[in-house]
């Protein structure tokens, strides 16, 4: 999805929120960001590209490789304790097969509705309000059909997004693995905003097979090394979490089908999908 004029409003809205979160001079932060943006604006294609520049400037100002480290830990604990158990309890009441997959996909899309530092309310409140809306686009049946046709030697790729989403993503990943499918998990190679890193994933679940993304935000195939590109292009199904992955992956014609699980947190994404802002989706692309 190409960047639109409205995207810059959101970029600066988050910049202002981050300045407050980290007690920074917002004007100085904005000036430094604009200087960096001016140098590379011709190479900006998607909203994720310009968002990465903002996060790079934030790290430079703070002189901190992972400014969100403690925030990620706190949100992870909260979601693990207050959301994941609710999802698991409901899962036991559903019949085996598609209904369980759809329930987990809905929850994985809905937990994406919370964004640090965009929301003043916490991840639990945002999640509950989002999941109640149901899937505005529901292609889970098509995705489940692909999963059930996946044979030995074929595999699924799961591309992670924000750290606090992982306890919910893990339930879906483990469910797919329980169907007898191989799942290759992709996480950020280096800290960017509140995205989860490969190291953090393995600390939380050492049993997963995890690969490091080289892309700054989302997935830019030309920036990934050969192994990652081969895994992505030869997957039976890609499950991609969040708006940055939607923004970037939709710029390519991929051989595997992609199931996008996200909540449309901004107007451009909502309009691109043809849904109301704040709605969760499970879209096959």
SSE blueprint:
Elements: H1 5-21, H2 26-40, H3 47-62, H4 69-82, H5 84-92, H6 98-111, H7 123-131, E1 137-138, H8 140-149, E2 155-159, H9 166-178, E3 182-188, H10 198-204, E4 209-213, H11 226-233, E5 237-241, H12 243-249, E6 258-263, H13 267-273, E7 280-284
Parallel strand pairs: 1-7, 2-3, 2-5, 3-4, 5-6
Antiparallel strand pairs: 6-7
Description:
- The chain has helices spanning 5-21, 26-40, 47-62, 69-82, 84-92, 98-111, 123-131, 140-149, 166-178, 198-204, 226-233, 243-249, 267-273, and strands spanning 137-138, 155-159, 182-188, 209-213, 237-241, 258-263, 280-284.
- It has 285 residues and is α/β, with parallel strands linked by helices.
- Strand 3 (182-188), helix 10 (198-204) and strand 4 (209-213) form a beta-alpha-beta unit.
- The radius of gyration is 18 Å and the shape is globular.
- The protein has a 7-stranded mixed β-sheet, with helices on both faces.
Supply database-style keywords.
single chain; alpha/beta; Rossmann fold; 2 domains; 7-stranded mixed sheet; globular
User: What spatial order of strands do you see in the largest sheet?
Assistant: 1-7-6-5-2-3-4
- Give the CATH architecture of the largest domain: 3-Layer(aba) Sandwich
Biggest pleated sheet: 7 strands, mixed
What is the molecular shape?
A: globular
Helix % is 40-55%
The count of helical stretches stands at 13
Query: How far apart, in Å, are the first and last alpha carbons?
Result: 12 Å
Rg: 18 Å
Structural class: alpha/beta
Q: What is the H level of CATH, i.e. the homologous superfamily of the largest domain?
A: Uncharacterised protein PF01937, DUF89, domain 3
Number of discrete domains: 2
Uncertain segments: none
